[in-house]
Amino acid sequence: MKLHMRNPRIPLHVLHPDAINRVVAPGYHGKSHVIISLVQDYRHGAKTANSLLMPIGFSVYKTKNPVRDEKRSLSKLSLLGEVTSYNDNREISTRFDLSPGSYFIVPYCLSDNHSGQFLVRVLAEKDPVAGKTGCVVS
């Protein structure tokens, strides 16, 4: 956790759950099915691209007050899940079933003292409305 405490926190706000679907188990009713993907950016051309990839990961934290918790230690927030690739994959993704509320997505590199550019994609059944401060899933 100390490795990525200073990494950016990307806010994600889930406003409404998905519509009730008879196929979905009742335990998932009232939640929004969200796919979060982290993609490494490389701009040095296709020949050297694979050698520039680093092991990456991201964590998802639940927050009650995103403005106040922006500077708060990650150990004080509720960790919902963590996705890590120990290989040099360009993209990692997973699905979360999130209740309405506010969350932080925290991307990180597993290598010490390495910074890089990345793209975070959030896919949901509802249309997400992107803002300057993050993602809103309505």
From TrEMBL:
PANTHER family: CALPAIN, CALPAIN-A-RELATED. One of its GO terms (biological process) is proteolysis. One of its GO terms (molecular function) is calcium-dependent cysteine-type endopeptidase activity. It comes from the Eukaryota. This is Peptidase C2 calpain domain-containing protein. Pfam families: Calpain_III. Residues 2-131 form the Peptidase C2 calpain domain. One of its GO terms (cellular component) is cytoplasm. SMART domains: calpain_III. Belongs to the peptidase C2 family.
